Amino acid sequence: MILKPIGVIRSKYKSRREAPRQGRTSEEVSVIEVYEEFAEGLEGIERFEKIIVLYWMHESRRDVIRAKPPGGNERGVFSTRSPERPNPIGFSVCKLLKVEGRKIYVKWLDAIDGTPLIDIKPFIEEIDC
């Protein structure tokens, strides 16, 4: 299996320590920069209020199979939201603010600066909740 980044996330968070545990708690604006070869794929995305952003948490450990969530007991990593996991795929539902060319401005994203972007999908309340 090969994943090809379609862009990069630009954020004020320069390290995992600076990033919020959950993006929904942050009002900071992040910028999703889509690479030129994928720019045409953005057509129509501006019609949505929210988007799903999938990204690769490139600074996470991949050898973790058990994790201890904040305030909880240690358990299997797949029953947690830990960024440390065999395939560190990040998932955020973001508020779409505006689209300018290949740049998407969003809120509620907890990714650090330079995070590889895997995919973007529209969030549709009726089918995603």
Automatic annotation (TrEMBL):
Q: Write the record's keywords in alphabetical order, separated by commas.
A: S-adenosyl-L-methionine
- Read off the SUPFAM superfamilies from this record: YaeB-like
UniProt-listed Gene3D superfamilies:
YaeB-like
- Key word S-adenosyl-L-methionine present in the record? yes
Listed InterPro entries: TrmO-like_N, UPF0066_cons_site, YaeB-like, YaeB-like_sf, YaeB_N_sf
What sequence ranges are listed for the domain TsaA-like?
Answer: 3-129
CDD domains given in the database record: UPF0066
Source taxon at top rank: Archaea
Database matches in NCBIfam families? tRNA_TsaA
Family, similarity comment: Belongs to the tRNA methyltransferase O family.
What is this protein's name? TsaA-like domain-containing protein
